[in-house]
Amino acid sequence: MSQGLRRILCCVGLRGDCDLVLTQAVGLALATSAKLHVLHAVKSLSDDVVNTLKVNIRDRKMLEALMAQRLDQAREELNQRIDTFWRRHPELYDAYGDRELTHSVLEGYPAAVITHFATRSGSDMIVMAANKRSFTATYAGKITKGVIKRARVPVVVVVPTRC
């Protein structure tokens, strides 16, 4: 990484308040002048759930609309969380200025989606939550461990107070 950080991938969940993860990622982006992308990975439905839906919802268009609605709701929630983050942290918003903060929602196994996206987008670092409240021998949750195991770039693990 002799050229420094150019792209930072910030991965957030939507279950809790992930302000600390976003704060760390924005701080790193400001300190390094890196571009920041926020990603939320929606876990795919299990085959059993998909098959049950197919059996009970015969209208293919309706089923496709329901499946798309999951991702649309996640996108809307991510947009709201980012807007709320900026309102809570006006000093970071001002410091970030008119730089672009991109974001996306993708579906699949989260650890694989995150590492694939990081590779495809040329990210130099991944910032994500530990998904545990304290640093113990098992400080990271399953997704975080999966990302650490697969990632080809450094992974910054943030221990949030609530996430």
Poorly predicted sequence stretches spanning 5 or more consecutive residues = none
Helix coverage percent of residues? 40-55%
Oligomeric state of the chains present here? single chain
Counting helices, strands and paired strands, the structural category is alpha/beta
Spatial shape = globular
Strand content: 15-25%
* Overall strand count: 5
Overall average residue pLDDT: 87
Output the radius of gyration: 17 Å
Task: Please write the string of helix (H) and strand (E) elements.
Answer: EHEHHHEHEHE
The largest sheet, given as strand count, sense and whether it forms a barrel, is: 5 strands, parallel
Strand order, biggest sheet? 3-2-1-4-5
Distance between the termini: 30 Å
In DSSP terms (H or I, runs of 4 or more residues), the helix count works out at: 6
Which helices and strands, and how do they pair?
Elements: E1 7-11, H1 19-32, E2 35-42, H2 47-56, H3 60-88, H4 90-96, E3 101-107, H5 110-121, E4 125-129, H6 142-150, E5 155-158
Helix pairs in contact: 5-6
Description:
Strands 3-2-1-4-5 form a five-stranded parallel beta sheet, with helices on both faces. It has six helices and five strands. It is globular and about 55 Å long. Helix 5 packs parallel to helix 6. It is of the alpha/beta class. Helix 6 links the parallel strand 4 and strand 5.
Which labels suit this protein?
163 residues; 50% helix
A few lines on this structure:
With 163 residues, this protein is of the alpha/beta class. It contains six helices and five strands; from the N terminus they run E-H-E-H-H-H-E-H-E-H-E. The model has no long low-confidence stretch (mean pLDDT 87).
